[in-house]
């Protein structure tokens, strides 16, 4: 596992389990001897043992998940997971059912802006607009600092989602130092992968990518290589491990033209789309006759806890 892990403050470690058990035992003693009534005895002999059993169950469940994750991580690291016949068959089926997409509009600006106009942003804007109206009415009726803070708080989030809905990241990117015509010619003829709020497409001259807040256009000549990054997310509810998921990223290594440093551009996709991106990248480099100049690797899993 990666050493750069984000630790959830209430993760069920052995030390935490012992602490919880001692606390529950003391709680049971308190209810049994201090309260010394029927309700206290029921809590001491029924509720507390059930709580201890649940804590032990949660601890064992998380440890079992961690053990399975270590085994899976080894397969990710040495590449056997993605080279297995079972996974390869699923990958072939996925490619047939989900081929590369094409742009919806023959205009790069319009196509990118439309991809930011999501219904969830409209819903959230309406919610925050309603909250702004309510706090505004409250401020008219009774002015105080708490109401003003609430008004500013809701107004800020309304602006954030409004900016995303109108495609502010796209608009800022278009105002930058870019050659729009050449990028558009590459973009509208690109093969695109879309996942959640992210997109990665392979154009004629550039790799185009976008996330919820960032737009990328990478010249193939500056793209040094591509790799796969897998992140394990452990999810907790009230400090107790509940579930986990794996997030997959296509990581493009880009050599900056001025400094010569390598910068990684990460776009989250699903595990099959990442492989499609790797295959397409290699195919393009082979066609350009510079396959020797690229490298492909599988990055070790990062164990990130939420």
Task: Describe the protein.
The protein is α+β, with helices and mostly antiparallel strands. 54% of the residues lie in helices and 22% in strands. The protein is built from 10 helices and 9 strands. It has helices at residues 14-35, 38-78, 80-83, 85-97, 108-116, 119-141, 145-165, 168-174, 180-187, 271-288, and strands at 191-195, 198-202, 206-210, 215-219, 223-237, 240-255, 262-269, 295-298, 302-305. Strands 5, 6, 7, 8 and 9 form a 5-stranded mixed β-sheet that branches. It has a 4-stranded antiparallel β-sheet with strand order 1-2-3-4, with helices on both faces. Helix 1 runs antiparallel to helix 2 (38-78), helix 4 crosses helix 10 (271-288) and helix 6 (119-141) runs antiparallel to helix 7 (145-165). The chain is flat and about 80 Å long. The model is unreliable at 1-9 and 290-306 (pLDDT under 50).
Q: Total number of β-strand segments?
A: 9
Q: Report the total helices.
A: 10
How much helicity do the residues have?
A: 40-55%
Shape: flat
Average pLDDT over all residues: 85
Q: Quote the beta fraction.
A: 15-25%
Low-pLDDT ranges:
1-9, 290-306
- Which structural class fits the helix and strand makeup? alpha+beta
In N-to-C order, the SSE pattern is HHHHHHHHHEEEEEEEHEE
From the N-terminal CA to the C-terminal CA, the straight-line distance is: 16 Å
Radius of gyration, taken over Cα atoms and rounded to an integer in Å: 26 Å
Biggest β-sheet strands, sense, barrel: 5 strands, mixed
């Amino acid at each position: 596992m990666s050493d750069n892990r984000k630790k959830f403050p209430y993760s069920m470690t052995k030390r935490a389990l012992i602490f919880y058990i001692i606390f529950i035992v003391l709680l049971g003693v308190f209810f049994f001897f201090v309260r010394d009534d029927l309700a206290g005895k029921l809590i001491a002999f029924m509720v507390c043992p059930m709580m201890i059993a649940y804590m032990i169950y949660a601890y064992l469940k998380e440890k079992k998940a961690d053990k399975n994750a270590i085994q899976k991580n080894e397969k990710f690291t040495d590449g056997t997971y993605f080279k297995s016949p079972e996974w390869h068959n699923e990958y072939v089926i996925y490619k047939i059912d989900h081929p590369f997409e094409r742009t919806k509009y023959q205009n790069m600006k319009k196509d990118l802006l439309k991809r930011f106009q999501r219904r969830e942003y409209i819903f959230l804007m309406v919610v925050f607009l309603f909250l702004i109206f309510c706090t505004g009415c409250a401020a008219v009726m009774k002015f105080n600092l708490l109401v003003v803070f609430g008004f500013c708080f809701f107004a800020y989030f309304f602006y954030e989602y409004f900016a995303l809905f109108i495609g502010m990241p796209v608009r800022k990117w278009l105002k930058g130092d870019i050659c729009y015509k050449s990028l558009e010619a590459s973009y509208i003829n690109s093969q695109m992968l879309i996942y959640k709020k992210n997109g990665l497409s392979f154009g004629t001259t550039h790799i185009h990518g976008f996330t919820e807040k960032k737009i990328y256009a990478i010249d193939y000549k500056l793209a040094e290589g591509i790799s796969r990054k897998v992140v394990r997310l452990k999810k907790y509810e009230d400090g107790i491990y509940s579930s986990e998921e794996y997030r997959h990223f296509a990581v493009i290594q880009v050599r900056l033209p001025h400094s010569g440093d390598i910068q990684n551009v990460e776009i989250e996709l699903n595990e099959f789309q990442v492989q499609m991106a790797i295959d397409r990248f290699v195919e393009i480099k082979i066609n350009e006759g510079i396959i020797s100049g690229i490298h492909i690797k599988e990055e070790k899993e990062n164990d990130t806890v939420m």
